[in-house]
Design brief:
The complex is a heterodimer of chains A (295) and B (350). By secondary structure, chain A is an all-alpha fold. Chain A is built from twelve helices and two strands. The longest helix of chain A is centred in the first third of the chain and has 41 residues. Chain A is globular and about 75 Å long. Chain B folds into two domains: 229 residues, P-loop containing nucleotide triphosphate hydrolases (Rossmann fold, 3-Layer(aba) Sandwich); 108 residues, Nucleic acid-binding proteins (OB fold (Dihydrolipoamide Acetyltransferase, E2P), Beta Barrel). In chain B, 24% of the residues lie in helices and 34% in strands. Chain B contains eight helices and 20 strands. A six-stranded mixed beta sheet of chain B has the order 6-7-8-3-9-10, with helices on both faces. Chain B has a five-stranded antiparallel beta sheet with strand order 15-19-16-17-18, with no helix packed on it. In chain B, strands 2-1-4-5 form a four-stranded antiparallel beta sheet, covered by helices on one side. Chains A and B meet through helix 8, helix 9 and helix 12 of A and helix 2 of B.
C-alpha cells in the first residue's frame, strides 16, 4: 500500500516539470517552430510571375539554387564574409578582453561601455556613420587622406566586401570581447605570477599559459560571431546594397521585391541549415578538444 | 658569515595604508622560517616582495649579497607554492612540473628525469598524466610543491599552502612538508596564520602584527617567552592576571601566596601563565581558589574555566588519569614561579 502511494506520488511529481514548462513550450512552438516549418514547406511550393504561389510539392527552387552559379557565389560570399569577421573579431577582441581584464576600476567600466557602444547605437545610424567616413569622394576619411596626398583615389568602401567586413567586425566585436572576458575571469589571478616565478617571460606567459585557457572562450565567441555575421541583414543591406548581396539580403529581396516567396524561403532554409550544421559540428569539436580538461 | 637572505627595513605602503612597516630579517641557508600573524598583518605582502610581485616602498632585499630587487620576478629563481596552487589547468601534472625546466632550456631527457624525480619526491608518480581538475586538493598541493622544487630554487616560498586542506590531511602534509624540506635542504619561508602549523614546521617563527615584526625566535622559545602581549595571546591561550607588587618590591601577592618577581617592577603588573602550566591543588593553601565553571573534554586533554577573584582562568590538564574536578567544585590553582611571565600593567593588552 505504501509503495502504491509512493508510486502515485512519484508520478505526480514527475508530471509537474512538464506542466510547468508547458506555457513556455507552447510559446516557443507558436512563434519559432511553426514559422520555421512553414518556411521550409514554402520552399517546396511553386511560383510564377502571373500565377503567384502554388501550394504544390516540387524541388524547382532547390534545383535552381543548386544549379545556378549566382547562388553559389552569393553563399560563398556570405560565408567568406562571416569567416573574415570571425577571424578579425578574434584577432582584435581577445587582446582587447585581456587588456580590459587588467584595467582598474573606473577605466574598466568606461572602456567596457566603449566596447559595448556599437550595440547601443541603431544599426542604421552606425552604418551610415561608416558611409560618412568612407563613402565615395566626399567621405571624411577619404577626403582627408586624399588632401594629404596619401592616396590618389578614394578607398572603396561602399558596395564592397571589405566595407561589409569592417562594419560587421565593428558591431560584432562586443560578443567576442565578452566571451573571452568571461573565460579570463575564470583564470586564477595567481597563475601568471606562478608562471613568472618559474622563469617565463611575459610573452611566454601569454602564449603558453593564458591563451590555451581562453581558447574555449575565443571559440564560443567565434561561434556566436560567425552565426550573427552569416545571418546579418541590415549592415550588408546598407553597405552592400543591391550590388553585393549576401544570403539574408537575397532572401529579403526575393520575398519583398521579386515576390518569389518560395525561392526566398529556400535561400533562408539553406542558410539556416548550413549555420546549424556549422555550429553543431564546431561545438562538438570544441567539446571534444577542451571538454575534459576545462570542465 | 653573511646571512643567506636579508630583508632590510622593508616597508610597503598601499596609498595611505602601511601594509609592511620596517621589517628586517636575516635568514640562514637551509633554514625553515614562518611568517606568522593574523590576516592583514603584512605577511603575504612581505612574501610577495621577496617573490617580486610587489615592489617595496623602501628597504632592501639581498640574496647572498646580491640585490634581489634589481632582478625581475622571472629571473629570481625562487620556487613558490600559492594558496590556490595556481596550477596550469590545461597541462597534466608532469607538464606542470616540467614547465619551469622548459623555461630554463633544460634538455628533454634531463627534464624527464628531473620531473620523474620531483613527482616521486611528493609521491605522485602514478598521477603524472592526470589533469589538475581530476585531482584532490592534497594531490594538487603536491604537484604545486613538485613544480616549485624541481627548478632547484634558492628559496622556497610557501603562501598558506595548507589552508585549503581539511584538518587530517593538513597534519599529514605538515609532516611530509617538513621531511621533504629536510631532504632537499632548500631555504624555506612559509606564510601562515595557523600557529600550530608554524610551530610544527619552522626552525624560527617571525610573529607579525599590523605590518610590524613582534618577535623572531625558535617556536619553543617564542611560545614560552613571548616578547609582547600580542605574541602571548596569539601563540596559544594565555591567562593574564593583574596583581599588585608588594610595597618593598621583588614579589607579588595573589590570594595567600607570594611570588618572587624581578625587583625592577613597581605598582601594578600583569602576570601571564599558560593554561597547561596551571595545576590543581588544595583550595586552602594555594595562590588562587575558584569554582570550576565549565569543563570540556577534548580528547587528549581537559579544558577548564575556573572562576576566581581575579577573573576567569583557563586550565588545561592532560588526560592522564589524575583526579578530575567536577563543574561547580571549589579548587585551588598553583604554578611554578618560572612558569609565570611578568610585565607592567597599563600597556597594550592586545
Amino acid at each position: 500500500m505504501s509503495s502504491a502511494a509512493a508510486k502515485i506520488d512519484s508520478s505526480r511529481t514527475s508530471l509537474a516539470p512538464y506542466l510547468l514548462s508547458l506555457p513556455a513550450f507552447l510559446l516557443f512552438v507558436s512563434i519559432v517552430l511553426i514559422p520555421i516549418v512553414m518556411t521550409v514547406l514554402l520552399s517546396f511550393h511553386d511560383w510564377g510571375q502571373f500565377k503567384g504561389i502554388e501550394p504544390v510539392f516540387i524541388l524547382k527552387n532547390w534545383q535552381e539554387i543548386w544549379s545556378d552559379s549566382y547562388f553559389h557565389e552569393m553563399f560563398a560570399r556570405t560565408f567568406r564574409i562571416a569567416l573574415a569577421v570571425t577571424v578579425l573579431t578574434a584577432l582584435f577582441g581577445a587582446p582587447e578582453a585581456y587588456i580590459l581584464n587588467r584595467m582598474r576600476s573606473p577605466w574598466r567600466g568606461i572602456f567596457l561601455l566603449i566596447i559595448l557602444g556599437p550595440l547601443l547605437i541603431s544599426v542604421v545610424a552606425r552604418t551610415l556613420g561608416w558611409a560618412l567616413l568612407f563613402g565615395g569622394n566626399s567621405g571624411v576619411v577619404n577626403k582627408a587622406l586624399m588632401s594629404l596626398g596619401l592616396i590618389s583615389s578614394p578607398i572603396p568602401f561602399m558596395f564592397t566586401e571589405t566595407g561589409i567586413i569592417v562594419a560587421l567586425t565593428h558591431v560584432l566585436m562586443p560578443y567576442m570581447v565578452l566571451a573571452v572576458w568571461a573565460s579570463l575571469q575564470r583564470l586564477d589571478p595567481e597563475i601568471e605570477n606562478a608562471a613568472a616565478s618559474l622563469g617565463a617571460s611575459q610573452f611566454t606567459i601569454l602564449r603558453r599559459v593564458v591563451l590555451p585557457q581562453v581558447i574555449p572562450g575565443i571559440l564560443s565567441g567565434a561561434i556566436i560571431v560567425f552565426a550573427l555575421a552569416a545571418s546579418a541583414f541590415a549592415t550588408p543591406a546598407i553597405i552592400g546594397g543591391r550590388r553585393l548581396k549576401v544570403a539574408a539580403t537575397l532572401a529579403y529581396d526575393e520575398f519583398l521585391n521579386t515576390l518569389n516567396w518560395p525561392l526566398g524561403a529556400a535561400v533562408a532554409t539553406l542558410l539556416l541549415v548550413a549555420l546549424v550544421l556549422i555550429i553543431v559540428v564546431s561545438n562538438r569539436l570544441v567539446e571534444r578538444r577542451y571538454g575534459e580538461m576545462m570542465r | 658569515m653573511m646571512p643567506f637572505l636579508v630583508l632590510d627595513r622593508l616597508t610597503k605602503h598601499f596609498g595611505s595604508q602601511v601594509a609592511v612597516d620596517n621589517v628586517s630579517l636575516a635568514v640562514e641557508k637551509g633554514e625553515f622560517i614562518s611568517l606568522l600573524g593574523p590576516s592583514g598583518c603584512g605577511k603575504t605582502t612581505t612574501l610577495q616582495m621577496i617573490a617580486g610581485f610587489v615592489r617595496p616602498t623602501s628597504g632592501a632585499i639581498t640574496l647572498e649579497g646580491r640585490d634581489l630587487l634589481a632582478i625581475k620576478p622571472n629571473r629570481r629563481g625562487l620556487g613558490i607554492v600559492f594558496q590556490s596552487y595556481a596550477l596550469f589547468p590545461h597541462m597534466t601534472a608532469a607538464e606542470n612540473v616540467a614547465f619551469g625546466l622548459e623555461m630554463q632550456g633544460i634538455e628533454r631527457e634531463e627534464r624527464h628525469k628531473r620531473v620523474a624525480e620531483a613527482l616521486e619526491l611528493v609521491g605522485l608518480s602514478a598521477l603524472a598524466d592526470r589533469y589538475p581538475r581530476k585531482m584532490s586538493g592534497g594531490q594538487q598541493q603536491r604537484v604545486a610543491l613538485a613544480r616549485a622544487l624541481v627548478i632547484r630554487p634558492q628559496i622556497l616560498l610557501l603562501d598558506e599552502p595548507l589552508s585549503n586542506l581539511d584538518a587530517k590531511l593538513r597534519e599529514d602534509m605538515q609532516i611530509e612538508l617538513r621531511q621533504i624540506q629536510r631532504t632537499v635542504g632548500t631555504t624555506t619561508i612559509l606564510v601562515t596564520h595557523d600557529q600550530a602549523e608554524a610551530m610544527a614546521l619552522s626552525d624560527r617563527i617571525v610573529v607579525m602584527n599590523q605590518g610590524r615584526v613582534e618577535q623572531i625566535g625558535p617556536p619553543h622559545e617564542t611560545y614560552e617567552r613571548p616578547a609582547t602581549p600580542f605574541v602571548a595571546n596569539f601563540l596559544g591561550k594565555t591567562n593574564q592576571i593583574e596583581a599588585d607588587v608588594a610595597p618593598g618590591g621583588g614579589e607579588v601577592t595573589l590570594g595567600t601566596a607570594r611570588w618572587p618577581i624581578p625587583a625592577h617592577y613597581k605598582g601594578r603588573v600583569v602576570l601571564s601563565i599558560r593554561p597547561e602550566k596551571v595545576g590543581f591543588a588544595d583550595p586552602g593553601n594555594s595562590a588562587l581558589s575558584g569554582t570550576v565553571k565549565t569543563r570540556i573534554f577534548q580528547g587528549n586533554h581537559w579544558l577548564y574555566q575556573v572562576d576566581t577573584a581575579n577573573g576567569l582562568i583557563t586550565v588545561i590538564r592532560q588526560n592522564s588519569g589524575e583526579k578530575i574536578p567536577a563543574e561547580g567544585e571549589v579548587v585551588g590553582l598553583t604554578w611554578g614561579p618560572s612558569d609565570m611571565g611578568v610585565r607592567p600593567a597599563g600597556g597594550a593588552t592586545a
